[in-house]
Amino acid sequence: MAAGYLDILRERHAARLLTGTLVGRLPNGTAHIAIVLFTRAEGGSYTLAGALAAAYGLATAVGQPLLGRAVDVYGQPRVQLPAAVLSALGMALLALAGLGSLPLAYAAVVVAGVATPPLEGGLRALWPSVLKREDQVHRAYAMDAVAQEIMFTVGPLLVTVLVSLWSPSAALLVINAIGVLGALSVVLSEPSRTWRSAPREAHWLGALRSPGLLALLGAFFFVGLALGSITVAGVAYADDHGRESVYGWLMAALGLGALIGGLGYGARQWAGAPERRLRVIVGLLALGYLPLMLTPSVPAMTALAALAGVFLAPAIACSFIVVDRHAPRGTVTEAFSWLVTTFGVGAAAGTAVAGPAVELGSTAWSFGVAGVGGVLALVVLLATGNVLAAPVHDPVVVTGSENDRNGAVEPGFSTGRKA
User: Fold this and answer.
1) 3-class DSSP string for 248-281
2) What is the rounded distance in angstroms from the CA atom of residue 35 to the CA atom of residue 90?
3) Most buried residue, 8, 36, 292, 353, by CB count within 10 Å?
4) pTM to 2 decimal places
5) 3-class SS of residue 106
6) What pLDDT score does 383 carry?
């Protein structure tokens, strides 16, 4: 299993791109907890902390596809690095100005969110130009999904360490400075500097003119909803058992399950259309969420949380391949950014729905939201099977467009590199 991932990391530029992207995304992965801790340290209420974090999240959801489209048009360095610097400056403004002026605080987090660079989509646009074979690209997607789980586990821990050693404002400044360095490492690399998207058709809908991509986004809205609801349901479960540490165990188990599932998924080659495979994986994901409604004892619940996480990373990794196949030519970074946005909006909706579910029903009801989200994701994939079965096949061959991800999973796959 590990040998396949090591082969990828041995490829020139691969380790640098993966590491730089993860470091560059650190501010985004830790922003919510950093904003909450900063707001509370400044004497703000939990309501204000939640509102500022929500403003950041919504701004990010708006900015990602717009910046992704800009990357497809203008290239990575001209968009990614200025965006990273502007986003860091927004957070620095919040850290230095504090909450004395709430309009200024909201403006700061909105700027930071809108300017969050689309490094995640950018990395997936680069893999076909770095790796030699189609199966390596697919394995890289799984490795990417696994690495995200690690980042979302380590990132919050790093924030809490910085807060304890210095202060919440220092944590905001340091995390965002690190993020700029990560983005700088990516855009100075040869693959990022030389990557060019394939020529694109001028269309105001951009990537959203693809019916298959719209179907995938609809499904992953509900996957995001399921995951977002679990974060609230886990808090309610921990409250029921009188121990805050229980929440940490549940989230760690969920991440561990995703880590194991992602490693297993990327360790083998998969035959057949990825759209059919995605339906099976999402069906298993939904089945994994449903038993959480039983809310058994803490040890059993921890085991169920690990089981629920097993198919998350494979679902995300497989969705990357489907995006490749359905993104219109010249819109691949934008398409991946839309996936990030839709997943994030779904997660926000899940947290919003799970709260009332606890208050009106019980903790089991809030976990039921996750089960319903998983089932609805599967329903969308089944209902749109005909659309997803017809990936984009652009007959126009453009010289020098080997880096276009739309070729990454098509017959005759080539990265333009010689073995």
Assistant:
1) HHHHHHHHHHHHHHHHHHHCCCCCCCHHHHHHHH
2) 12
3) 292
4) 0.74
5) helix
6) 95
Residue 50 identity: G
In the three-class reduction of DSSP (H, G, I as helix; E, B as strand; rest coil), residue 178 is classed as: helix
Residue 159's nearest CA partner among 280, 324, 34 is 34
Q: What is the mean pLDDT of residues 218-247?
A: 84
Residues 394-409, mean pLDDT to the nearest whole number: 35
Q: Specify the pLDDT at position 400.
A: 34
Cα–Cα distance between 369 and 228 in angstroms, integer? 9
Share of the chain above pLDDT 90, in %: 35
The letter for the amino acid at 70 is A
CA 122 – CA 132 distance, rounded (Å): 18
Helices (H), 42-195: 46-74, 77-97, 102-114, 119-130, 134-165, 168-187, 190-194
Amino acid, single-letter form, for residue 379: V
- Please, are residues 350 and 373 in contact by the beta-carbon 8 Å criterion? yes
| Amino acid identity at 261 | G
Could you give the CA distance from residue 320 to residue 323 in angstroms, rounded to a whole number?
A: 5
pLDDT at 398: 32
Q: What is the mean pLDDT of residues 52-73?
A: 86
Q: What is the pLDDT of residue 403?
A: 37
Residue 289 has pLDDT above 90, yes or no: yes
Q: E strands, 225-372, where?
A: none
Structure-block tokens of residue 397: 């061959």
Closest CA to 317 of 279, 391, 265: 265
DSSP 331: -
Burial of 265-277, coded b for 16+ CB within 10 Å and e otherwise, reads bbeeeeeebbbeb
Which two structure tokens, joined as six digits, stand for 21? 């992207």
- What is the Cα 162 distance to its own chain's centre? 24
Q: Are 97 and 105 in contact (CB under 8 A)?
A: yes
The answer to whether 245 and 373 have CB atoms below 8 angstroms apart is no
pLDDT at 177: 96
pLDDT the model gives residue 204? 56
pLDDT grade for 2, boundaries at 50, 70 and 90:
low
Q: Which pLDDT score is estimated for 238? A: 83
Q: Residue 294: which residues within 8 A CB-CB, separation 6 or more?
A: 304, 364
| Spatial contact of 215 and 325, defined as CB atoms under 8 Å apart | no
In order of 76, 259, 287, 313, 320, the CA distances from 377 in angstroms are 32, 21, 12, 15, 16
